[in-house]
Amino acid sequence: MQLTCVGVQAETCDVTRFTFMADAQPDFIPGQFISLKVPIGAQTSVRAYSLSSTPDDSRLQLAIKRVEGGRVSNHLLDQLKMGDRLEALAPAGEFHSQLAGDQPWLLLAAGCGITPLFSMLKDRLRREPDADIVLMFSVRSEADKIFALELEHLARRYPHFQLHWLLSGEGDRLGEAQLQAVGDLASRSVMICGPEGYMVSAQTLAQQLGASKVHCEAFHAAATAAAVGAAEAAQGHTLSVDGVELPILPGQTVLDSLEAGGIPIFAACRTGVCGSCKCQGEKDKLQSSSVFGLTEEEIEQGTFLACSSTVTGDMTLELDD
Amino acid sequence: MFCVQCEQTIQTPAGNGCAYTAGMCGKTAEISDLQDVLVYLLQGVSAYAHLARQYDIVDAEVDAYVPQAFFSTLTNVNFDAKRLVAYTERAMALRNRMKDAYLAACTQALATAETPLGAGQFELSVDKAAMLARAPETMVNRGLSEVGEDIMGLRLLCLYGLKGVAAYLEHARVLGQQSRDLFGEFHRIMARLGEDPSEMGELLELSMAIGMVNYGVMELLDRGETDTFGHPEPAKVNMKPVAGKAILVSGHDLIDLQHILEQTQGKGINVYTHGEMLPAHAYPELGHKFPHLVGNYGTAWQHQQKEFANFPGAIVMTSNCLIDPEPGRGIEGYGDRLFTRSIVGWPGVTHLEGEDFSAVIDCALAQEGFKYDEIPHYTTTGFARNALMAAAPAVIDQVKAGNIKHFFLLGGCDGDKAERNYYTQFAAQAPQDTLILTLACGKFKFNDLEFGEINGIPRFLDVGQCNDAYSAIQLALALAEAFECGVNDLPLSMVLSWFEQKAIAILLTLLALGVKDIRVGPTVPAFLTDNLVAALNEQFGLRLITTVEQDLNDILAA
């Protein structure tokens, strides 16, 4: 999919909203992400960002946060301008409105984690104006409010949508009192997106208070790791394959990373048995739970099974033909 | 059926044109055949109207009727068989009346009456079955095997260009603007096309004559609009709905919009423009006068099925482009709250004659209306002739200071093909020291973008409807005069998108005025052969768009 950037707008001091036209408007489920292929110098990096637009919108929109030291996010925020074109992979991801279902929602967002939830929220309210939705949105300060105008507008317009801002800089954090005030937590689908620490504590808290259907934009799951543009912040590593650099997070398998980056790889059993996902990497950076079917010599030379291997450092690999 | 008049027509290695059970626009083979018979008969009416003018016999009803009925066969205008048959009946009556008048004048002058060839001799007992039986004789590609593809292509270029002229004649007429001379020239060309001319030189001359008559008609139309509604003054238009009952007005006829605005005053109904009606917001007697013209709803015509289905009010289609209001495919139909006007028609959809819009108002009041305001999003329109001329000195200063390097006229029709993304990309990639002028519904490909300004001059200037091409031409002439050069020497490039026959008419006007190096897309008209495209390129520098990067490089390097 080819994207043309048709709009660049600063949202806060470190978040920019980018608008794109796709060569063919893709279908997606609100909450899903797209992966941008970003050429920087001789290398192309792949990063996934959640869509903040809805499938009904004529343009695609992303809100991208500048990550300190992050090569790709800094490049995009500093360099990407109207008229520039980027290649992107089709929308994907498991954290979406269908997963959330049609019961009342409690949306818990922190910072740029609002993006998938914003798409889900707009889409559901458009389809179902009386939907019961509570959004608790944690940001550092007034100046860090993302999508503030639209969110306030939705809160005015839809009587059953409640918006609560939590300003962490003023000591206002998500806690038991806030969640208890929501009420009927057990009947709500709780969707959480934000930095990992936030998600872990929010999930624990929600479950302790009786929520049973709780989903996080899982940082350890395939692909979704980078979905909120947080891969760079999650202390992962990179895989380099055919000049393309992909993020890989702690615990994420090489196979998941390759698939998230749109690298074609055949993986039949996905459990370390069939040998179809055999690759060539760097032996001392690999941790494999299965080497089934590989010879000692192959293992010594760095051959491994992508479905059963994680990495301990940045690694270059070749796909086995 | 055989129809190749619009950009979405079927193109296969076996041949171009819609020739099966229905056209890509949704018109059935039956409608297409009825239209062919009607057009052929209208050529016969023009034949006698032309001959009668030798004796100074001018029938105002005939002058008005031929373009009006011809307009009904333009893409996405009239799909109603009953009305097409009725138009044909009327055409036959007028043809006979003109013929009688001409023969009587010849008798009185003791002159031998001429018998026009082809269409002028066409006899028909008008009913639907007879029309369909005679359709093969009147198909627009009749005689292809005798004349070959190149001549046929030129005939169709002329026929479709003249159809665009007919549409503009009708738009001007409803504003009280008519010209005996322009009607005369229209009949002359229409009559000649009914004789199936086969010489390339003559057909090229006819195409240029069509361009020039259209230039006159556009001037007439410009006068009609500005005399009636004032000179457009740039206006910010909200592109999002506001709470309340609603009427949506689409098409090009500003006078219908005026009636609706007058009749809805104080009734608690908000009126919205759609598509080509957007520039109405800039007219002093429309947008600036009636605060309940609250904004524009939706985008270009090809999205109407989804957008109209979601519009909670009455919808009025004053001219093209109309498509099937009961599309199925999970989209809710809206034919019961749609109204057609003038020559527009769809079977089963209420057609309104006269100036009473109470049925529309009742319908709007019975609908739910918009329950909430959306967050406003604005575009600016109304940089027509006067506004552009007022800005011209400042623009010229910026050009001389080197702050404005180039002008692009990026406009024309919108359509469904993915290739039309070219125009969005072009607008987005145009360098910051360039200005983008636009007109017609092609603007919806990029009028939501933020272009910024150059020292106070907006980089994006929406001139108006396709009808307002005259304004863009006047600006080009003014700039040429200011810089003491020809239009072709200006740092001005035209990158046009076409879909239907009005765009063909405007293109012929630009060519006839000597404008060179126009780029056209998204595809070559399917009726033009490779030879014709090569000839147009050689004579006028007319070329097809390539890629945005290539075209921008070529234009800015020149």
Description:
- The complex is a heterodimer of chains A (321) and B (558).
- Chain A is α/β, with parallel strands linked by helices.
- Chain A has three domains: 2-88, Elongation Factor Tu (Ef-tu), domain 3; 97-216, Nucleotide-binding domain of ferredoxin-NADP reductase (FNR) module (Rossmann fold); 233-319, Beta-grasp domain (Ubiquitin-like (UB roll)), CATH 3.10.20.30.
- Helices cover 21% and strands 32% of the residues of chain A.
- Chain A has helices at 71-79, 97-100, 114-127, 148-157, 176-182, 196-208, 254-260, 296-300, and strands at 2-10, 15-22, 33-40, 43-50, 60-65, 85-92, 105-110, 133-139, 161-167, 189-193, 213-216, 237-241, 244-248, 278-280, 286-288, 303-305, 309-311, 315-316, 318-319.
- A nine-stranded mixed beta sheet of chain A has the order 5-2-1-6-3-4-13-12-18, with helices on both faces. In chain A, strands 9-8-7-10-11 form a five-stranded parallel beta sheet, with helices on both faces.
- The longest helix of chain A has 14 residues, at 114-127.
- Chain A is globular and about 65 Å long.
- In chain B, the strands form five sheets. Chain B has a six-stranded parallel beta sheet with strand order 6-5-4-7-8-9. In chain B, strands 15-12-11-16-17-18 form a six-stranded parallel beta sheet. In chain B, strands 1-2 form a two-stranded antiparallel ribbon.
- The relative contact order of chain B is 0.11.
- The mean pLDDT of chain B is 96.
- The A-B interface holds A 4-7, 9, 21, 23-24, 58-59, 82-83, 85, 129, 149-150, 153, 157 and B 299, 371-373, 375, 418, 421, 424-425, 428-430, 446, 448-450.
